[in-house]
Design goal:
This protein has twelve helices and 14 strands. By secondary structure, the protein is an alpha+beta fold. It has a five-stranded antiparallel beta sheet. Strands 11-12-13-14 form a four-stranded antiparallel beta sheet, with helices on both faces. A three-stranded parallel beta sheet has the order 1-3-2, covered by helices on one side. α10 runs antiparallel to α11. The chain is globular and about 60 Å long. The structure holds flavin-adenine dinucleotide.
Length: 286
């Protein structure tokens, strides 16, 4: 199929972008990497009156270190994040997760802002943003706002973004002393995950001082496993601790079922990921 006819705009500034978003309201759609929007247009699942291409907005693709942390612009491509030395140094979790996003061709076009704004429950970046305690910056005609990633994702394809607002950056606070791990299970490499885990732990000798465990693909939005985090905190990761974390996790996950996998399968996979990722994180230290 071909897309329904639409007007095409390519603004050169944020002000122009906000004017266009105000002019078209619900009938205008932002185009970033196009890896989700273009298929939706082609299948006529989306039929906006206007497509507003933000790819020429200056400076939005930068990755830089600022006093508040690592700032990744909304137009940074997944591939740029994957290979950035700054990301490897300041947010290694993202460097681990990015190779799991689709295939290389998709990563050369897909953007950080697009992935955050789309809020696919099986996407890697939203779960990493929550695990990293990151902040999402967005702007609209009335100025800029920022919100913790943990509060940004509200449900399936639903975020705190309001009409007329544009995601401008992901801000990751300094994370010295944290170890990062990412794994996911998918039917084929490049497919959306059936379940994934973005994890960070801070160790004090062999004891877990702090843990952030955020699952993807097992809920309407990234799922922070606070119960399992609590169980692991203050303990050495041994068989007993892992068994207790599994019990806590079983009580806090309520995964959906679909053609790709049942709730029971997703719960099972989440447990496997918990063991694999946490064990690898602890063992990597010695
Ligand atoms: C075959 C295939 C496999 C894929 N596999 C994965 C995968 O495993 N994991 C994964 O995470 N993704 C996957 N994707 C999606 C891909 O990562 C996209 O890059 C991502 O979903 C959207 O980013 P985009 O820049 O392409 O956004 P677009 O497609 O351009 O836009 C997506 C939506 O976000 C809105 N939007 C875009 N940018 C902004 C912004 N700055 N502010 C506000 N709204 C904005 C658009 O209006 C649109 O509604 C896959 C895609 C394909 C085609």
């Amino acid at each position: 199929m071909k897309p329904a006819p639409f007007e095409y705009h390519r603004p050169a500034s944020l002000v122009e972008t906000f004017d266009l978003l105000a002019r078209y309201g619900d009938d205008g759609r932002i185009l970033a990497g196009g890896q989700s929007l273009v298929p939706a247009l082609n299948m006529r699942l989306a039929t906006p009156r206007a497509v507003i291409d933000i790819n020429r907005l200056p400076g939005l693709d930068a990755i830089r270190v600022a006093p508040e942390g690592l700032v990744i612009g909304a137009l940074a491509r997944h591939e740029a994040v994957e290979h950035s030395p700054l990301v490897r140094e300041h947010a290694p979790l993202l460097a681990l997760a990015m190779p799991h996003v689709g295939h290389e061709a998709i990563r050369t076009r897909g953007t950080v802002g697009g992935s955050l704004a789309l809020a696919d429950p099986a996407a890697e970046l939203p779960a990493c943003a929550v695990a990293l305690d990151a902040t999402i910056r967005f702007e609209g005609r009335r100025g800029g706002r920022e919100i913790a990633a943990g509060d940004f994702f509200r449900g399936i394809y639903t975020t705190a973004l309001e009409p007329g607002e544009l995601v401008t950056a992901l801000v990751i606070p300094p994370g010295a002393g944290w170890r990062s791990g990412f794994q996911e299970l998918a039917r084929r490499h490049g497919d959306f995950a059936l379940a994934g885990l973005a994890a960070r732990v801070r160790l004090d000798r062999d004891v877990v001082a702090e843990a952030r465990l955020v699952f993807l693909g097992v809920g309407a939005a990234p799922v922070r496993a606070r119960g399992a985090e609590r169980v692991l905190t203050g303990r050495r990761v041994d068989t007993d601790a892992l068994a207790a974390a599994h019990r806590a996790l079983a009580g806090e996950l309520d995964p959906p079922g679909d053609v790709h996998g049942s709730p029971a399968l997703r719960r099972h996979l989440a447990g496997i990921l918990l063991t694999r990722v946490v064990t690898a994180l602890v063992e990597a230290r010695s």
